[in-house]
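Subject: Interface between my chains keeps coming out wrong

I've been trying for a while to get a sensible model of this assembly. When I model each chain on its own everything looks fine, but I need the whole thing in one frame so I can look at the contacts. Pasting all components below, labels as-is. Any help appreciated, I'm running out of ideas.
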Amino acid sequence: MTDITTEKARIGAPSAQPFINGFTEEGESLSPLNAAESKSPLAGEAVKRHSHGGGVGVPDSSRAGRLTSYKLADFKPLTGMEEDWRFTPLKRLRGLHTEVLNGAAPSVSVTAPDSVRVETVGRDDSRIGSAAIPEDRVSANAWENFAEATVLTVPSEVQVDGEVSVLLTGQGTEASAQHVVIVAEKFSKSVVVLDHQGTAVVSENVEIVVEDGAQLTVISLQEWNDDAVHASSQQVKLGRDAKFKHIVVSLGGDLVRVTPSARFTAPGAEVELFGLYFADAGQHLEQRLFVDHAVANCKSNVLYKGALQGRNAHTVWVGDVLIRKEAEGTDTYEANRNLVLTDGARADSVPNLEIETGLIAGAGHASATGRFDDQHLFYLMARGIPEEVARRLVVRGFLHEIIQKINVPAIEERLTEAVERELAATNH
Amino acid sequence: MSTLEIKDLHVSIDTEQGTKEILKGVSLTIRTGETHAIMGPNGSGKSTLASTIAGHPRYNVTSGTITLDGEDVLAMSVDHRARAGLFLAMQYPVEVPGVSMTNFLRTAKTALDGEAPKLRTWTKDVKAAMAQLRIDADFTQRNVNEGFSGGEKKRVEILQLELFKPKFAILDETDSGLDVDALKVVSEGVNRAHAEGNMGTLLITHYTRILRYIKPDFVHVFVDGQVVEEGGPELADRLEDEGYDRYATGAGAATIAAASAAAQA
Ligand SMILES: Nc1ncnc2c1ncn2[C@@H]1O[C@H](COP(=O)(O)OP(=O)(O)OP(=O)(O)O)[C@@H](O)[C@H]1O
Ligand SMILES: [Mg+2]
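Reply #2:
Try treating it as a single job with all components included. I did that and got this:
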């Protein structure tokens, strides 16, 4: 690990503290031209000399070098110093990283049209492991401990009307493991909603396969009770020309940590990763995503928006996008925006864009944290708008951009109401 | 016919060095149909007066009164003052993240009128007002003031003035940062609102430039938190030639103020 490591194409921007007065933006957009010709560390020699295959010789600081394994023993016990755990209060994981996860997993109830196959299978089912491999200790712990898995299959060329609804209801505070597999076969089209409710302490692995030409939307709702702890690794593998839309909505729970990963295996595929979170006093809501551009001509678009209010409300967003050497023609953009509504809340936002080839169509990232402060309030009130309405106006407007991407009216409505409740809950 | 009356207003702010008195006894009466210009050097307290009328929490009124048709304005919350008919076009309009102009304008209009405007006519009104102020139609999709240039922000303030139809408009240096064309466009907007006959205007400015387009009935010279001289439009012309230098600050200002008050009486 020489100097080359630090010179490699990495655009990282720890965002840190909220800026005042609306949004200040940092971000950049790299045109293929300047990425190819520039002598900056973003491209050129340093990049070309460096290769990543994962494993030996790959520096820790690159997402490509992250350890993945099905075996819990391969992951060292957590200290909190690890790059991917440095923002997480381990004490509040309630044993998901240390205990045997043998509590009762959240119950699963699926509502789906007949055209969708719903199965409950054992650990030895061939579809287990078809899209995911644990990327951290908590995920590996669930993999080692889950008793049975729910497998949803949308058969080839089937277009599902309405959404497939998977209700996962927590069974209490015993640490547990959950496993879900979603397979969208060739040229199918469907929407799946994972609806997490109740009280649980659970580590969950969701494997998602989107086969050639299939279109799948997965909406993961975390509307847990206040005492829930949830770690969820949601990994998707995309075939040729596949389209995947992922929407993560975290509202309830003491600690929720969702880690979506998208892997392209053939050209022409496209992912959209959206997220919405609203943290109240004391809540820790974390989202760390990874988009692995390992093949040419794929597209990714990421937008996460979060609101925070109340003392010690904490949100974390880390967006790792890796464009490997082979991934020529990649087009990617990632952005995270946070709105801090009160003092005492903290939003961490870290976009990481690693680019190993200059021959891309586009790559950009942005991170902005704005504050809703007395000046905003004064401005709106000076136009006759009462304080409560002003606050709602700002938050609603801000989060609506994500809600409207859901395209399932019932859920859009439900989330709009949930956001209103969040606002009302901590009215002061 | 309405009256906005400011009597012997004293205002201070809390700073790290302690309490600082900024307005030191300001009296002013504005009636419907009148345009009053307040002119004064930087730091004389013009914005403080404007913000205090609008109710900005930063400013503490230590004595004096503000009434609107006899109603105690100081007892009203910020939004209540706006609904009572006061409008402040701010010197530095605030960027509000997450709220589109469309949504903002409609919400404000609804709050001001107590009922939602009829969608069809409202959209038409907004479009027409924007066109007259040469504001691009796509501004409605953007967030309030976010990324607007200084001049664009000022136009949008006047857009609101025209749409909200207040009883009294306080324009805090609406002219600053505008080029000649924009100044004309904005002045026309103010004049249109005024011409409807239901509005009084308090026009705060540092320069006389805007007074070529908006004719004041009265001019008040503001120095060090006090009105040191008052007169008609001709006073503005004199300021253009002589500047503010002849108004001493401190004790001198108070003397002049007393003298001019005596002269008026
Ligand atoms: N937030 C503040 N903190 C400290 N001092 C302040 C603050 N606001 C106003 N002041 C002081 O109060 C005085 C009056 O300020 P104000 O903004 O009212 O002046 P102004 O006449 O509007 O000036 P300008 O022509 O520059 O707009 C100035 O001395 C200013 O420094
Ligand atoms: Mg000022």
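Reply #3:
Confirming on my end. Residues B 13, 15, 22, 40, 42-48, 91, 173, 206 surround adenosine-5'-triphosphate (ligand 1) (CB under 6 Å).
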